[in-house]
Queue: 4 jobs
Job 1
Amino acid sequence: MSTLTLGMALKPREDLALPSRIARSAAATTGAQLRTEDFAGWLEQRRLAHHFEVDRIPFEELDGWYFRQDTGDLAHRSGRFFSVQGLHVTTGEGAVRDWHQPIINQPEVGILGILVKEFDGVLHFLMQAKMEPGNPNLLQLSPTVQATRSNYTKVHKGADVKYLEYFTDPRRGRVLADVLQSEHGSWFLHKRNRNMIVEAVDEVPEHEDFCWLTLGQIGALLHRDNVVNMDSRTVLACAPFPDETGGALHSDTDLLSWFTAERSRHDVSAVRVPLAGLPDWRRDDKAISHVEGRYFDVVAVRVQAGSREVSGWSQPLFEPVGLGVTAFLTREIDGVPHVLAHARVEGGFLDTVELGPTVQYTPGNHAHLGEAGRPPFLDLVLGAGPDRIRYEAVHAEEGGRFLNAESRYLIVEADEDEAPLDPPPGYRWVTPAQLTTLVRHGRYVNVQGRTLLACLNAMRTDT
């Protein structure tokens, strides 16, 4: 076999040192710039430094938005950003196999990026105090860059997105993670964002709304309610944590084979339909709501935000009805922690299913279905005592599209009687390391599963 030399040295396929650098940052609970105990004060300073205001308004007061005459879809006059359309979903199994709903159609791919840099030999992550109109407390810790294509191409004619160049110019940094990940399949149609972690190679200019934190510090903040936003959690889940165990109940090949079979056996149809006249949904001047008061409402808000690229705007938001419950059941199998993942069908997924938590429901949305329609393992999670709960915090979902969308995220210990090693169809025991491997690829682990993966990694740190 002949060898062709082009003067370029081959590179290792994997950076074998990176997982240990990630682990070192996760173990560091003291940062070079900001102490964890001072974080709440810093965030409050950033809150007081800018004027934030969100007011509900009727649809007719939306600036730049309109209902299309032919379909009733809610869209922006620029043709950009996103639109609210109707969706008709049919599935082959489950307590509910046919339904209609509003859905957010946002076909453009945004960037969710965290910039990292070493200080004193420890990786620090550049996090932003960012206001989102749907956040319950408005200001939360977001990635360095959190922007849709419409935002960073300045369709809104606003200011530049800070630090964007580190994620669009390959010469500015070294990519540690880069993957297209899905977002909420129940509320978005085929939505994807580019999740990136980039290591800066030069000095990084400082800005008062940003701070450097270690993974250990962020892990501590993940134990607090509504501090670390959804976009940060999904990017953090992409960090290549080391596999400290090396074993699993199912090999990676067996897991992928099972997952492929799950995708193949589900027959899911999701067809866009006009928003006007959507069965079981009604529209008045202030909301689009389900006739039974379940699921979510589509509402309109006017926003003032002094720290954003545009200081004022109006937009629709989805507002869920009730607090969600999102949980992994966990067991140690031969000394190795595993979690019970669920191959979930959601109408907005690009593929039929993605791996999600054991439980991912808003209990009130299922009360009318009776005992037969009760989701598996939901009562086990709801009834778990403090001695069984290994992690618990309330986290908000994406505040740029959802209003007061909160879920109680838990990791709950179970036993063989409650959660057997041979679980019901559609469920599989996996290790956190296996989830970390899958998250390197798009459309394998859903956004709620990625949040819980970030929380599992946070359990390595002290609170």
Job 2
Amino acid sequence: MRISSSQIYATGVSNMLTQQAKLVETQSQLATGQNRLSPSDDPVGAVRSLELTRAQEKTEQYDRNGTILNSRLGLEESVVSGSIDLLQRVRELSIQANNATQSNESRQSIAAELRQQLDNLVSYANTTDSSGNYIFSGYQEGSAPISKTASGYVYNGDDGQRQIQVGPARSLPDGDPGSEVFMNILNGNGQFQTAANAANTGGGVIDAGSVTDPSQFNRESFTIRFTSESQYDVLDAGGAVVSSAAYQDGGDILAGGMAVSIQGPVAAGDEFTIAPAQRQDIFSMVEALAVSLETPRNSAGDRALQTSEINTAISNLDQAMDHLINTQATIGARMQSLERQTDLNAGASLQIATSLSLVNDLDYAEAISRFTQQQASLQAAQQAFSKVQGLSLFNYI
């Protein structure tokens, strides 16, 4: 087999170039810290790296969503908490106004503060976030949720709840529509409501009552009609007498599984009604109380009617506060769920980062050892070539 000088030179140069290419590749890996300079170096690793990178980006997006959601829920919780404090103040004013020592003028002064609190409550309901969007309008975030019309307070939003994804399989609402927070509240004691007839002339005052026999409670309506100062009839919704009894001041009057109490002297013809609780908005509850306190009461019958109205208002306020407290608890539960999901996302992010490091990051100890070995191989190839290129028959002639 004949080997020419040109073949020797070509082989030597090829070997040096191969060693140089390997050295340059290792040098690039050391410079970038990546063990794969192109997908072709490790196709399986490249696909795995892409999958992990996408998973990491999704987790980062979940974290951003969680930050936005926490801000929205924090704002809503603050507004609901402020509304509860406001209603507590309204309740205190109601009890103050219910004192027999109050005059028409002092009750009107209390009503003036109630009006201010009512305006504050409407302002709470129309709260906007940092972007200027109304937080209680549902999907209609560009429209103020609560406005007052000639017929009362109306809700201008919808019942929508935006769901924000905070985990691979977890989404949470970013708020509650105003229709659920401020509008749909059962009045009275939450099961039924009582009221005194405006035409009453006696001094009887009815309380909020309670359900004493759930098995008989069918949400029926009844009328308590006094046939004399010491006798009354209980009539059903059709006007039929279902029971009659002697009146005892402060004693229980039973009807349809319900018990109510009337205190004070009554007159023949006085009537009191029991009706199923209805959905009502908070604003109308406070408005009705303010109107009652603004109306002058001069006779004993008028003052008794006002006392019954204030008692009804206090029951309504208690229901409204319970409703808001439940709403606040729901918001708090969401924030706790978000916190737990955030912790899960942090753990997942750490695991993804670890897996991504194993796939992409360079083993520096191995790479430096390989670089040193390749450098020695290149130097050996260069020295061998310098020796070979000096070989010639002419040196021996």
Job 3
Amino acid sequence: MSQPSPAPTPSAAAHESLLSVTRRHLSALARALVTPSYPATPLLARSPRRWLRRLPYAVAGLLTIILIPTTAQLLTRDYGLNGGLASVLAAAQAAPLLLAVTRPLPAWWIAFIADTVGSLAVLGYADLPERSWPWQPPNIIGYLFLLLFLALREPRHTLMAVWLVTGGVGVFLGIPGARYSDGSNVLMFVLGGVVLLVGGALRERGDAQRRLAEQETISEAERARRTLLEERARIARELHDVVAHHMSVITVQADSAPYRIGGLPPEAEREFGTIAATARESLAEMRRLLGVLRSEDARGERAPQPGLDRVPQLVEATVRAGIPTTLSIAKDVAALGPLPQAVDLSAYRIVQEALANVVRHAPGAPTNVSILTSADRTGLTVLVVNGPASGAPGPPLETTGTGHGLVGMRERVRLVGGTLDTGPLPDGGFRLAARLPLVEVAQPAKNTADGADGTAPGATEAMETMESTAGAASAGRDPLAP
């Protein structure tokens, strides 16, 4: 009978865990040595001062001009190398400083390999015990500046890997020539660690300052947005307080008119009933809008929003207000089936605002409302045209307009990705044509310039946000969401 295998002891499990952790960290350091963390952009490229942006190039260029001939002469005269080989090694050791301005990690690889090859090339020189080895003074100077450029761009784990590799190669080179070594490998290791530490601290300080500045910018934008939302909510409450009182008075007067005025004909009683019902509907809609704006968690009533099926009621109410209005709906509109909710609601609101403008600014003007589809049935066109008033025109209810209605209509059309054309007619009338696509867009088109109509954009945004937010809450979704 076979014996069960013994369970691993705690020390063996700890030993395996230590090996796993060590292997993982070594793998991360190896990846850091071959993976630059920043794009190839110049050092100090974000500095607002021009001379600071050019400083890295000036330092790298000056060091290269000085170090290449100095290193070549040193290797030829003091270490007995061939002049051509010395020149190649000098260029390979110093020229990477120019590359380090934009790509410090690849530049470090080139210079580090060149320095190592140079140390091995002079290993057999007879007078080596009297010279600096394994690193020559020009190599140390250029290498330290290269480490500084590297520290200003790369994160901590990359700097740690570079430092360990530098020290490890220095120890390796010191073994075969220990009797020649003058301690330059130790000096390079210590000074390199100091440079990497200081440069890394400067880089992290700069990153922290940039993140702080970005956070302050975001906070300022959030404060501005919060102020705007608070102002919109305040406007909504003021509108409710002012308008609701008058609408309530209208409702009470219309409901009590048959009892206060005797002998009213049935048509007049029905008219008063219609007025009261319209006033109550307006009050309910205002309360829903105000409820949405009072709290982020508030939701509007889940009642259907008006659409094209309610347009005939708008036209009928306009006719009762004394505006001769005709409605023309193309037969193929009904064949389209249910329209996208945003398009359906926008079409209704556009007709509603256009007819309200006719009542306010052109009383008695004959008006025609047409709803058509495009030839390929991918778009809906809402056309409202009013001509000059027949006979003696009555005085307009409003002699001056703010233009909020047109701005609101443009915003609604923009939200569904359509277009709006408006303008006066040669005979004195006015034409409005809105083209709405029959597919909902994910990203609204670019907003038109604020105040193009001489309006107050802030007030318009408040009113439009009230309506669109209420419509979204009633439908259970947010039409403004991207």
Job 4
Amino acid sequence: MSMLYQAYQNHMDLTAPWRTGAAAALKYLNLVPQGASDRTFGRLAAALELISRASLTYTRPAYGIDSVTVGNRDLQVTEEVAYATPFGSLLHFRKVDGPEQPRLLLVAPMSGHFATLLRGTVKTLLQDHDVYITDWHNPRDIPREEGRFGLEDYTDHLIDFLGQLGPRAHMVAICQPSVSALAAAAIMSEDDHPARPASLTLMAGPIDTRIQPTKVNGFAKSKPIKWFEDNLINYVPVQCKGALRQVYPGFVQLTAFVSMNLERHIKQHVELARHLAKGETAKAETIKTFYDEYFAVMDLPAEFYIETVRDVFQEHLLPQGRLMHRGRPVNPAAIRRMGLMTVEGEKDDICSIGQTLAAQDLCTGVRTYRKVHHMQAGVGHYGVFSGKRWNNEIYPLLRDFVHVNA
């Protein structure tokens, strides 16, 4: 299994000329004057489009956030790398001539896709906050000489990034990194770090997966950790900068995601072909935009993946008070003078109700009046941080919580 990634990459390299040829043929076919093509031309164009798109990309898509409305003004937004390591960048969405607003670090998960999955979250937050995001780099592009990247390294990155933001910044963690975000806040509080966050918001995060376990939690506990090492960890292909680095490949993760809703994905591609054949450009573009993002995959460092499965989902170290960081215990009770907000979704089948709320009981040093919990009715996992309910019901609560603690 360890050479599956190499075999996959070889296959994609061998079939690349077919996709390139299809894209070139489609370009020339589109030069046919409008009205001159018949149904056959439409079907041919649809077939060429699907062939040219039959691959994954390992490059981060663009965030595409060029402006944001603040009050009654439209402000230009530029992306600036405020700080970077080989494994990630602290990306700043700077508003040109914008007002002074609370600085906020949005912590993106390492889950097989790029941080651009949170572009909608970023755009909403930008209305009232000075937003930074953890823009993780693809391990297949990171040379082995740069070393390992495990769960402790993730936590260290959050501490370093908050150090770059300076005092009184706020941290919002989405899903998986909630554990590292809570650990970073605890360590910085215990050390009286000047840049410890003024508030911490954990959204749909697996703080204690013993509570109402989901199918995802059940799968993580159904196999010994060695099974995950033997069956899911591969070497980065020799064609890549990160050659022979051990990773959990993005294409393997995507295969698992697609298989969970295979019928839906097949139906979507049938619909895409139909829209293309009929010349329904707008409808086709909606589907293409979704899959451009969905098929942009990122590998996970093997150490990070294995340690997350073991420490978070199998051994539950944080809620049991046994999580260590660089040889010292992680003590959430050390968190004081910090606002704590937890958010969960009623229909979340990845991180069920109660798993994120558990952070409230762990943080005994936070005064009750500085704790906020919100359970959003009618939303699943992604609805906690994207979509209408996020924009209209969850975000106003988070915005007010951050501003109260600013």
